[in-house]
Amino acid sequence: MKVLRLARRALRGPAVRMLFAAGLGTVAVGPARGDGREGAKTRPRAVEEIFYSDVRVAGPEQLLPKPLEKKAEAEAAFIQGLIAEDEGAFDDALRDYTTALQLDPGGNPELTVRIAHEYAKRGDVATGIDLLKDLAKARRDDVSAQLTLAGFYLNELKKPDLALKYAEEAARIAPGNLASYQTLFDVYFALKRKRDAEQMLKRAEQLDRKDPDFWLTLAELAIRLYRADNGSFPAAKSPAVTPFLQRAAASAGDDSEALTRTADDYTTINQIPSAIPLYLQALELNHGNSEVRYKLAQSFLQTGQRDAAISALEEMVKANPLKAEIYEFLGRLYEENSDRERALANFQQALLLAPNDPENYLHTAEVELQLRKENDAIATLNEARHRFAIPQITYALAIAYSQAKRFSDALPAFESALQEADADGRDPFDAGFYFSYAVAAEQAGLIDKAAALLKKAIALDPSKAAQAYNYLGYMWVERGQHLDEAGDMIKKALELDPQNGAYLDSLGWWYYKQAEYGKALAELLRAVELLKPADPVVFEHVGDAYLALGNPAQAINMWQKALTLDSQNRGLAAKIDREKAKVSANQTTLGAPGPGPGVAPPAPEPAPNASP
Predict the structure, then answer these.
(1) Residue 109 pLDDT more than 80?
(2) By the 8 A CB rule, do 508 and 541 touch?
């Protein structure tokens, strides 16, 4: 056993050898048994006889001096502790080690620190502190006692004011010791003595050290000192950290881990351009490190170099084609680049590699919907729904059904999402959920249900409900229902977003339904100016207003613009043909007067139902 070997080595140590030399090596004995002669010669006794027979009391000349005697007793207690520890008698070992340290306080600093920590773990910090103070007195140049005492007062007793003198003494004894700076910084930080901590870091900056870990530790202490409560790092404090990082980078050499750590710290203080070359250097040293490549891609992205980020990730894929998060990252970057086909390919690969992550299904389905692949999205989300009982999955499926105009399937999916949320005892859905549910209900002809859902969306967040206000108002205007309340809804939408062309179109159409054609035309023309790209429904509304005001030529002109934008609108094409025929008939009827001012116009054709 290791401990027994240590014990045997200790038995050969200097203190034990002194014991043998002092009185146990050669012992004077009396006459041999049965020999009556006086003055018989003495003979050396074997070691076995020394241990297994009575020994005479040593004479004064054979006694050890008191200091050496204590050291010998300390060695003996230490050996007893080793044996007890090896036998699993830890309480006995602790007692024996403590005895050894009390007999010889400075004899074994490492053991002192170890035993002090053992007492602290047992809740007896005071005994540990006593042992450490004895060590500090016996060895005034040993920094371990000062550092451990400072740590005990700071961390165990929560008394940084008492820890301070020991931390400062440790820094004085060992000014190049990194642990001294860390401990002193911790004490200053606990005492909220920021200026002292800053001065300590500035003193450390003057040292001549070639160890990157030393400079990185100091950089991280400075980051800790200046970091805001919300975790952000103030840009104004970056110059207080960069000197440490520059020294770390300069001394890192071919240490890819140190280079990466330096780059990480640059990223923390928002100095991304300084981090990128260090990540590149680390990659040159360790091509297979996918984590570094991932950080490099993130750095490129943060500096607006999206193409460089994509390139870095594509290289990662070649080196490590089975890491799902790389494909997910690439998918997001391609999506931001509006390259949806590649985005979809990467999201699908991520899904293949990590089918137990619901986010991968949601990403894939979202891009499939953007590409108008509604059936693929529905299949993806149905598979996800079989795997995960998550309301958000069912909500996404309802959206996919809605986009595919399968409203009879969308409505139960929306309701199922609500029921799943209720089963969890919470409603995770925001106003957007209820708005989408309302749109599906309106498209399915369930107007009252749609109105109730829109009101729920408004109630959840009135300050951001412009879209819901407008949809509700327009829905009623189209059907000639609740016109007074409908006007109020549209006007509230415009209060929240006064330059929204779609909402101005709704207001103009409301005036039209109220037979206030002049006001209607004014609002509708404003809507045409603001809406980009142009909306065929708005042009059709403008044409209807012109016709109501007795200007069929302008009406036809606006309807034709609408038809150019929506060439499949057969109802609009038929309306143009009818009005052209009327104009032509009027022109051939000589002397037939057109409608004059104040004359009611012919009833306009009803406009097709259009979403706001």
Answers:
(1) yes
(2) yes
Residue 393: strand, helix, or coil: helix
Report the alpha-carbon distance of residue 163 to residue 394 in Å, rounded: 58
Q: What does the pLDDT look like over 126-174, one tens digit per residue? A: 999 999 999 999 998 889 999 999 999 999 999 999 999 999 999 999 8
Where b means 16+ CB within 10 Å and e means fewer, 66-101 reads eeebbbbbbbbbbbbbbbbbbeeeeeebbebbbbbb
DSSP string spanning 294-329? Answer: HHHHHHHHHTT-HHHHHHHHHHHHHH-TT-HHHHHH
DSSP at 32: P
What confidence tens digit (pLDDT) does each residue in 462-509 have? Answer: 999 999 999 999 999 999 999 999 999 999 999 999 999 999 999 999
Q: Which two tokens stand for residue 85?
A: 């520890």
Q: What secondary structure letter does DSSP report for 593? A: P
Residues 6, 82 contacting (CB under 8 angstroms): yes
What is the percent of the chain where pLDDT is above 70? 84
Measuring CA to CA, how many Å separate 186 from each of 148, 225, 507, 563? 13, 10, 65, 74
Sign of CA dihedral 542, 546, 547, 552: negative
Instruction: Label residue 430 left, alpha or beta by phi (over 0 means left) and psi (-120 to 50 means alpha).
Output: beta
CA distances from 528 to 373, 410, 554, 590, 607 (A): 31, 33, 14, 36, 17
What ranges do the domains of the chain cover? 1-30+41-104, 433-498, 522-588
What is the rounded distance in angstroms from the CA atom of residue 519 to the CA atom of residue 513? 11
Q: Rounded to whole angstroms, how far apart are CA atoms 476 and 506?
A: 11
Tens digit of each residue's pLDDT (9 = 90 or more) over 394-418: 999 999 999 999 999 999 999 999 9
Helix (H, G, I), strand (E, B) or coil at 54: coil
Q: 56: left (phi > 0), else alpha (psi -120 to 50), else beta?
A: beta
Q: In 10 A of CB 279, how many CB atoms? A: 29
State the Cα–Cα distance between residues 548 and 553, nearest whole angstrom: 12
Note the CATH architecture for domain 433-498: Alpha Horseshoe (1.25)
3-state secondary structure of 230: coil
Q: How far is CA 505 from the centre of its chain?
A: 44
Residue 4, H or E segment: helix 2-11
Count H helices and E strands in the chain, helices first. Answer: 32, 0
**Structure tokens given for 57:** 């009391």
Residue of higher predicted confidence among 66 and 609: 66
Concatenating the DSSP letter of every residue in 312-378 gives HHHHHHHH-TT-HHHHHHHHHHHHHTT-HHHHHHHHHHHHHH-TT-HHHHHHHHHHHHHTT-HHHHH
Q: Which amino acid is at 346?
A: N
Q: How many residues does the chain have?
A: 612
- Asked if 550 and 600 touch (Cβ cutoff 8 Å), the reply is no
Report d(CA 303, CA 297) in Å as an integer.
10
* C-alpha distances in Å from residue 518, one per residue of 501, 548, 549, 597, 603: 18, 9, 7, 12, 16
The 10s digit of each residue's pLDDT in 216-235 is 999 999 999 999 988 889 99
Cα–Cα distance between 520 and 497 in angstroms, integer?
A: 19
Half-sphere exposure of residue 491, counting CA atoms within 13 Å on the CB side?
A: 8
